[in-house]
Amino acid sequence: MAAVRPRGPNILVTGTPGTGKTTVSEHLAQLTGLKYINVGQLATDLNLFDGYDNELQCPIIDEDRVIDEMEDDLSAGGNIVDYHGCEFFPERWFDIIFVLRTDNSILYDRLENRGYRGQKLESNLQCEIFQTILDEARESYKTEIVHELQSNTSEQLEQNIEQVQMWINQWKAQHGQ
């Protein structure tokens, strides 16, 4: 009989667009061997949309189809999930959640450099000012697994990667991996 491979941790890296989620997630996947899932890219690749928001100039993700598509990977474990939302994912999926936060003056420049304008820019800045993503994470998951990380500088980016990598190593040690 084959030995059952232990499930690796599932990590959600979330935050307002422009806070560094993709950079952190991609680096962690390379360093740890965990599978990287960029939800926005997954939705684009598989056309998992349910319309278009003209005001925010972006497609509307079909959350049910995204969850269906991700279920097998998340049930198997060993994933780093990158997305700017968090409340629609099943609570059982994640062992830990990191919410990246960025000061608005820095975030403004990052989003403007990405071509965000008008309502889309304003909406994302308001989201960060009112810590919308952090509050959603705290309301949707056990508060002890939700961690806020500042993401303003390249030094903080490196510290965040190191901190999450240390958590992964600790999780693996606690789970016999």
Automatic annotation (TrEMBL):
GO molecular function: AMP kinase activity; ATP binding; ATP hydrolysis activity
Cellular location(s): Cytoplasm; Nucleus
Entry superkingdom: Eukaryota
GO BP terms, alphabetized: ribosomal small subunit biogenesis; rRNA processing
Region annotation NMPbind: where it falls in the sequence: 38-61
Keywords: ATP-binding, Cytoplasm, Kinase, Nucleotide-binding, Nucleus, Ribosome biogenesis, rRNA processing, Transferase
A Pfam family assignment: AAA_18
Gene3D superfamilies attached to this UniProt entry: P-loop containing nucleotide triphosphate hydrolases
Signal peptide: none
InterPro entries in alphabetical order: Adenyl_kinase_AK6, P-loop_NTPase
Keyword Endoplasmic reticulum: no
Residue ranges of the region described as LID: 113-123
GO cellular component: cytoplasm; nucleus
Keyword Secreted: no
Chain segments annotated as transmembrane: none
Catalytic activity: AMP + ATP = 2 ADP; ATP + H2O = ADP + phosphate + H(+)
EC number(s) recorded for this UniProt protein: 2.7.4.3
Amino acids binding ATP: 18, 20-23, 114
Functional summary from the UniProt entry: Broad-specificity nucleoside monophosphate (NMP) kinase that catalyzes the reversible transfer of the terminal phosphate group between nucleoside triphosphates and monophosphates. Has also ATPase activity. Involved in the late cytoplasmic maturation steps of the 40S ribosomal particles, specifically 18S rRNA maturation. While NMP activity is not required for ribosome maturation, ATPase activity is. Associates transiently with small ribosomal subunit protein uS11. ATP hydrolysis breaks the interaction with uS11.
Quaternary context: Monomer and homodimer. Interacts with small ribosomal subunit protein uS11. Not a structural component of 43S pre-ribosomes, but transiently interacts with them by binding to uS11.
Similarity comment text for this entry: Belongs to the adenylate kinase family. AK6 subfamily.
Name used for this protein in its record: Adenylate kinase isoenzyme 6 homolog
Organism: Littorina saxatilis
